[in-house]
Specification:
There is one protein chain. This protein is α/β, with parallel strands linked by helices. Helices cover 42% and strands 17% of the residues. The chain has 2 domains: 256 residues, nicotinate phosphoribosyltransferase (Alpha-Beta Barrel); 178 residues, TIM Barrel, CATH 3.20.20. Helix 6 runs parallel beside helix 13. It is elongated, with a radius of gyration of 26 Å.
């Protein structure tokens, strides 16, 4: 078992509740729904991601003996509790939006139906994985939109909030179309294209820029991109041209500009390269970019062929979290909901219906028939604690995203002032909500 499936990867209150359920023999099936309550103002849509690592966790979920000892010795769970935990595995069913699906607030990204203790114990990691991956994928998708067909690569590793986050960023950005990553282990693990040039320290280590460029090109003649802004960008471009001519380089050539006025500098660099008879040398820009910077450069006509984005995408700087929730919506066949102010949750297991063009997004009950012309977004991905299909690869998730993105209305994909597609409850789901609210108020005397 990997550490990612440890039974201790949960909040303490989950263990408290699970132990209490098990002591009382409460083993009935519970359905929990995971959704985003509302979108950040800067988002017009979400991209569902993180399902694969979530399913991997669920498949391996268990308590090891050393973990049980800790629970007994440090947290004073009883021997009976520990024995109950020892046999816990995830045996539930999971319905989810496949990775790469465009989604909106209020739509379930995932629903779990399992014995209530199991469904409770896995809540923390399920929320953690889907929130992180979906947050990053949704941010990165906006950068891809802003790039308008130009290549974008992931440079976030050194600024993400931990190594595992860096792996998640590389994977999520690949799902939404990034062309590569600087993270070599992520490239190996996920079959991505590793991308990298040189640092300013490399250039500084040689007597001159030309010396550095010649050494690097001699060592890597088939993937040479020169970092030209260590001292003076125009001089750096000319030093790169001299190196190309001296070594007779022709394959996969580029220059990278990492600072300054990228619009002005890229225009000057393009002029110098074209005058030197090197129109095929690509210009790569980086340096604290996000979708707003990329959009401005592209709209302004800057002759930049590719962008490297790091910090602001890797931490989703403008919206570093999503208001995700994992709420009990049914237990032992009884629909349930919260009535807390601003946190009302709709009862019952659900489905999401979408019509072409995303002109109508409907959250319905799971057993409702699919309306003519619509498609259902939630699919069964796990039954009895086991996947119903093999692990899905990133290219398939990317193709799904591309199809959805092509349908996404302009108002939602707008980089500057996005407006999400409205989501409504079906008539049956609305009626169940009203009945459930009335039932709760009767029972609690409200």
């Amino acid at each position: 078992m990997t550490a990612s499936a440890s039974g201790l990867l949960t909040d303490l209150y989950e263990l408290n509740m699970a132990a209490s359920y098990l002591r009382r023999g409460m083993r009935g099936l519970a359905t929990f729904s995971l959704f985003v309550r509302s979108l950040p103002p800067s988002r017009g849509f979400l991209v569902a991601a993180g399902l694969e690592p979530t399913l991997e966790f669920l498949e391996g979920f268990r308590f090891e003996e050393d973990e049980l000892r800790f629970l007994g010795e440090e947290l004073r769970f009883t021997d009976a509790d520990l024995e109950a935990f020892r046999s816990v595995r995830f045996t539930g069913d999971v319905w989810a939006m496949p990775e790469g699906t465009v989604a909106f607030a209020g739509e379930p990204l995932l629903e779990i139906t399992a014995p209530i203790a199991e469904a409770q114990l896995v809540e923390t990691v399920v929320l953690n994985q889907l929130t992180l991956h979906t947050t990053i994928a949704s941010k990165a998708a906006r950068v891809g939109i802003a790039a308008a067909g130009r290549e974008v690569v992931d440079f976030a590793f050194r600024r993400t909030q931990g190594v595992e986050a860096a792996m998640a960023v590389a994977r999520a950005t690949a799902i939404v179309g990034f062309g590569g990553t600087s993270n070599v282990e992520a490239a190996r693990r996920y079959g991505l294209r590793p991308v990298g040039t040189m640092a300013h320290s490399y250039v500084q280590s040689f007597p001159t820029e030309a010396d550095a460029f010649r050494a690097f090109a001699a060592d890597f003649p088939h993937r040479t991109t020169f970092l030209v802004d260590t001292y003076d960008t125009s001089s750096g471009v000319r030093a790169a041209i001299e190196t190309v001519r001296a070594l007779g380089l022709t394959d996969r050539l580029g220059i990278r500009i990492d600072s300054g006025d990228l619009d002005e500098l890229s225009r000057e660099a393009r002029r110098i390269l074209d005058e030197a008879g090197l129109p095929g040398v690509r210009i790569f820009a980086s340096g604290g970019l996000d979708e707003h910077d990329v959009d401005e450069l592209v709209r302004g006509g800057a002759p930049i062929d590719a962008f490297g984005v790091g910090t602001r995408v890797g931490v989703s700087a403008d919206a570093p979290f999503l208001d995700t929730a994992y709420k009990l919506v049914e237990f032992e066949g009884r629909p349930l909901m919260k009535l807390s102010p601003a946190k009302v949750s709709a009862p019952g297991a659900k489905q999401v219906f979408r019509v072409p063009g995303m002109s109508d997004e409907v959250v319905a009950l799971r057993d409702e028939p699919v309306p003519a012309g619509a498609r259902a977004l939630l699919a069964p991905v796990m039954r009895g604690g086991r996947r119903v299909a093999p692990t899905e690869d990133i290219p398939r998730a990317r193709r799904r995203f591309e199809v959805d993105l092509a349908e996404l209305p302009e108002q939602a994909r707008d980089v500057r002032a996005p407006r999400p597609v409205p989501v409504r409850l079906s008539l049956a789901a609305a009626r169940l909500l009203d009945r459930s609210r009335a039932d709760i108020l009767r029972r609690v005397g409200g």
